[in-house]
Amino acid sequence: MEKNQKLRFAIIGCGRIAPKHAESIIALEEAELVAVCDIVPEKAQAFADKYKAKPYISYEEMLDKEKIDVVTIATESDLHAPIGIYAAKKGVHVMVEKPMAMTLESADELIRTCKEAGVKLAVIHQNRFNKSVQLLRKALDEGRFGKLTHGQATIRWNRNDEYYAQAPWRGTKLQDGGVLMNQSIHNIDLLQWCLGPVESVFGYTRTALRKIEMEDVGVAVLKFKNGALGVIEAASTIYPKNIEETLNIFGETGSVMIGGIAVNRIETWEFPDCEEEKQKIFASQESDPPDVYGFGHREIIKDMIQAIREDREPAINGEEGRKALEIIIAIYKCQETKQQVILPFEE
After folding, report:
1. Are 194 and 137 within 8 A, CB to CB?
2. Are 9 and 31 in contact (CB under 8 A)?
3. b/e string for 240-263 if b means 16 or more Cβ within 10 A?
4. Which of 84, 115, 239, 342 has the fewest C-beta atoms lying within 10 Å of its C-beta?
């Protein structure tokens, strides 16, 4: 590939999150959006018209006919792995929305296929690229927290019956999952990214208010291999609208709390002798994003482009994306057995 040659992108799935993909691709000089796909012809055509790309209703036909370098997959969740596997076998690099698969077996097959095909695989956990989260991660890497004690990942959002009625697959066990798998997975990813490998999980889930097959409320306690503890609270039942997505990390010599609607705003930053640093951080913070998806999609797509050009792993590769999935599936297992689950485990 020529050094200045643009990477040719395609988007599969023209629904709720797809505009974030399209706008991010178009904004990057190193990329161009050449094709889009949705099984609903009207959606594919409208999306293609808006973003000046070629529409398809079959991803197989699109990947067969078009010269695509990278595909981003934004379909219903149970199709993420099968489509990614098909694309990898065609020699196309794969970016997949969360969750990367609905089962660990499917996730592992996707990871294995991409490796065998020699293509890159990136899982879209864009909140790792939030400026607030990047500052937190830097402090962790520098050891400023001392001994880590505990952390908390909280999602308090509203997804009403009208949201779930938009598509028959929403809230189902096989195609979508509940609030943990769909809404909270980003924050669970951040919690484990900050506190490290998980040793054991215990949790409960409940379908409290929404007319769906899976949970609209979930809570869990995690024990990390370094001795730290973690708490997950996830709800799509919050009245009357989204309130917060919060990540809190605490240690012997540090406390950081990140809030906002998309874990985007540092609310507490406490380390020894940090007053000047704290004032600079608070003065330079971004305003809330227009929606819960945040600002990170452009950065994660940019990282994928750089990974391809530099022949390195993407920042959030398949193995990284699998970690939050394993925690959630373990919580579901706890609900079935009423017992803690030791990680790693087999479904």
Report:
1. yes
2. yes
3. eebbbbbbbbbbeebebbbbbbbb
4. 239
To which residue do tokens 């990329």 refer?
31
pLDDT greater than 90 at residue 150: yes
pLDDT of 65-103, one tens digit each? Answer: 999 999 999 999 999 999 999 999 999 999 999 999 999
Distance CA 79, CA 63 (A): 16
pLDDT tens per residue across span 284-295:
988 888 787 888
Residue burial 173-205, b: 16+ Cβ < 10 Å; e: rest: eebbbbbbbbbbbbbbbbbbbbbeebebbbbeb
Does 130-289+326-342 match 7-127+296-315 at the fold level?
A: no
Alpha-carbon separation of residue 135 from 265, 284, 333 (angstroms): 11, 12, 34
CATH classification (class only), 7-127+296-315: alpha beta
Find, among 44, 59, 61, 50, the residue nearest to 25 by Cα.
50
Question: Distance between CA atoms of 10 and 8, rounded to whole angstroms?
Answer: 7
Which tokens is 267 given? Answer: 């609310």
pLDDT tens-place string over residues 194-232: 999 999 999 999 999 999 999 999 999 999 999 999 999
Axis-axis angle for helices 104-117, 80-89 (nearest 10) = 10
Q: What is the pLDDT of residue 2?
A: 59
Helix axes 318-337, 185-195, angle to 10 degrees: 110
Confidence (pLDDT) at 288: 80
Mean pLDDT of 315-334: 98
The upper half-sphere exposure of residue 155, i.e. CA atoms within 13 Å in the direction of its Cβ, equals: 30
100 phi and psi angles, rounded to 5 deg: -65, -20
CATH fold of 130-289+326-342 reads Dihydrodipicolinate Reductase; domain 2 (3.30.360)
Which token pair is 133?
């989260």
pLDDT at 3: 64
Domain ranges of the chain: 7-127+296-315, 130-289+326-342
Residue 176 is encoded by which pair of tokens? 């979508």
Alpha helices in 167-274 (DSSP H): 179-182, 185-195
